[in-house]
UniProtKB/TrEMBL annotation:
Keyword Membrane: yes
Keywords: Membrane, Transmembrane, Transmembrane helix
Protein name per UniProt: DUF305 domain-containing protein
Source organism of this protein record: Rheinheimera aquimaris
Residue span, DUF305 domain: 90-139
Source superkingdom: Bacteria
InterPro entries xrefs: DUF305_CopM-like (IPR005183), Ferritin-like (IPR012347)
Transmembrane segments annotated in the record for this chain: 6-27, 39-58, 64-84
Ion transport as UniProt keyword: no
Length: 168
């Protein structure tokens, strides 16, 4: 029963870590499912499983099962880390859905930091404008690709130009 509890604890913690990665997003409309963040949560959960099992080794008496859990956790960690670092499974929409919350974090930190230097404040304002414009452009592209498919050539892309997004 304690191994079931351990498994449920790791799964719950991994899901919580995935959700908590979105807490520093600036706006609700910037919340998109991110495959990359899913992989990040998996390697964090796997790392936590390894650390917790090692620290609580004496609580878990089935040594062979402990070694199996460590091996599986190490495999999940390595595969998830590879997927994050290589971006092998990330296509156009997955990339944009990961980038929108990332850009949103830049807006949050740039707009809420207690910046006193006018040069730094100016830089932060530029970052906010650029990130807002890029979020609008990526949102438009996600919707356009969903509706019309991927533009596979410059000629096809020219038929569907991205509107100019100028944040206020």
């Amino acid at each position: 029963m304690q191994y079931v509890k351990f498994t449920v604890m790791i799964i719950t913690s991994t899901l919580l870590m995935f959700l908590m990665m979105y807490l520093n997003t600036y706006a609700m409309q910037h919340l998109w499912f991110s495959e990359t963040r899913g992989y990040m949560a998996l390697y964090m959960g796997a790392g936590m499983a390894i650390a917790m099992l090692i620290f609580m080794w004496s609580m878990y008496k089935r040594k062979l099962l402990n070694i199996l859990i460590l091996a599986i956790s190490t495999l999940v960690f390595c595969v998830s880390l590879y997927l994050v670092r290589s971006q092998t499974t990330i296509a156009d929409d997955s990339w944009m859905k990961a980038m929108i919350p990332h850009h949103s974090i830049a807006i949050l930190t740039s707009s809420r930091a207690g910046i006193k230097d006018v040069r730094v404040r100016s830089l932060a304002a530029e970052i906010i404008k650029a990130q807002e414009r890029e979020i609008k452009e990526m949102t438009w592209l996600i919707n356009d690709i969903k509706k019309n498919g991927i533009a596979e050539s410059e000629q096809e892309a020219a038929l569907r130009p991205v509107p100019a997004f100028n944040p206020e």
